[in-house]
Amino acid sequence: MDNLFIKHDRIIEITPMAIIRQWAQSINWNARLLAIRGPKGVGKSTMMRQYIRQHYGLLDRQVLYVSCDDSY
User: Tens digit of pLDDT for each residue in 41-70?
Assistant: First the structure.
């Protein structure tokens, strides 16, 4: 589990914050399950990482970002 948090910290730290999509504010982030669909390369993962960076600290262990294409 520590390896996942180390990778999470690295990814969240380098997430660009210059452009934040306004439509991300219309999502019910308190829902128990979110499904974000869309074509590859439109910013779905970036939006999730930006939300984590805005609402949690860089070393906060209440949240964990893991990409589903990570083999670990």
Answer: 999 999 999 999 999 988 889 999 988 877
Per-domain residue ranges of the chain: 2-55
DSSP for 14-60? T---S---GGGGGS-TTSS-------TTSSHHHHHHHHHHHHS-TT-
Cα–Cα distance, 30 to 26 (Å, whole number) = 12
Instruction: Supply the angle between the helices 44-55 and 2-13 in degrees, to the nearest 10.
Output: 100
| Tokens matching residue 42 | 């439109």
CA-based nearest residue to 10, from 54, 62, 66: 66
pTM higher than 0.90, yes or no? Answer: no
List C-alpha distances in Å: 15 to 18, 30, 31, 38, 41: 9, 22, 23, 20, 15
